[in-house]
Amino acid sequence: MDERGPLCVGIDPHASLLASWGLDDDVAGLERFSRTVVEALADTVAVFKPQAAFFERFGSRGVAVLERTAADARAAGALVVMDAKRGDIGSTMAAYAETFLHPDSPLFSDALTVSPYLGYGSLAPAVELARTSGAGLFVLALTSNPEGAEVQRAVREDGRTIGATMLGHLAAENAGESPMGSFGAVVGATLGDLSSFDLDINGPLLAPGIGAQGATAADLPRVFGAAVRNVVPNVSRGVLRHGPDSGALRGAAERFAEEIRTAVSG
Ligand SMILES: O=c1ccn([C@@H]2O[C@H](COP(=O)(O)O)[C@@H](O)[C@H]2O)c(=O)[nH]1
């Protein structure tokens, strides 16, 4: 992030994007789409976030494309956050962790998105393996969609919201780490003023919602306050809609990166 800026470009091969790129909605189209994004941007953006759902819908051959996409992006020097949003009881969570966080796995990624809504403690196997592998997690804390509030803003008996509780768990995981720990939170850029939450978790804040969901880079300081320095803003469709031309993809990513730089430094 220091070298390249914090922009995270999502690799979300929606059927509608494949169509607008002139590609078929099949495995060959998926492969061409993903390869084009990685080749166009892997030397400039800090982070890619492949959305596993769009690969899994093609079955095992789609997952094979996902493996190659993650490996190619990492080989080109970018970080990969696998957006698979896994979460289950601890014993099953251990298998998900092996899949995405074990360095020998074909789907190894620098970080994985996980859902804590079976209880934060159920994520323990993933926390443990991430620590061993030098990888990270992004835990869904305050998601960008309006429906998320029903769960994440629910208030516990002790008066804390569920979202704030998750942020508290992450701050504890990252305590004492410098420059920051590897246990991040997903916090939507769409959420407006979040000053009632303590976002100072000493870890990265993955912020989806810029572009297609209506948030802008200029919103970041208002949403995140002083924690804006740890934000990894994600843009997926806002960049991808400019393809398939590589120059246009690069131009779109550069514009978002510049807007983010201006917003964060201003
Ligand atoms: O709270 C969340 C968590 C994850 N996402 C994911 O991020 C991208 C956003 O795509 P855009 O095209 O930029 O809207 C997508 O993969 C979501 O599944 C999120 O939007 N909000």
Automatic annotation (TrEMBL):
Pathway: Pyrimidine metabolism; UMP biosynthesis via de novo pathway; UMP from orotate: step 2/2
A Pfam match: OMPdecase
InterPro entries in alphabetical order: Aldolase_TIM, OMPdecase_AS, OMPdecase_type-2, OMPdeCOase_dom, RibuloseP-bd_barrel
GO biological process, one term: 'de novo' UMP biosynthetic process
Reactions listed under catalytic activity: orotidine 5'-phosphate + H(+) = UMP + CO2
EC number: 4.1.1.23
Domain Orotidine 5'-phosphate decarboxylase: start-end pairs: 6-252
SMART domains cross-referenced by the UniProt entry: OMPdecase
Enzyme class label: lyase
Keyword vocabulary terms for this entry: Decarboxylase, Lyase, Pyrimidine biosynthesis
List of catalytic residues: K85 (proton donor)
Record's keyword annotation contains Lipoprotein: no
Molecular function terms from GO: orotidine-5'-phosphate decarboxylase activity
Family affiliation: Belongs to the OMP decarboxylase family. Type 2 subfamily.
Full protein name: Orotidine 5'-phosphate decarboxylase
Organism of provenance: Streptomyces globosus
Organism classification: Bacteria, Bacillati, Actinomycetota, Actinomycetes, Kitasatosporales
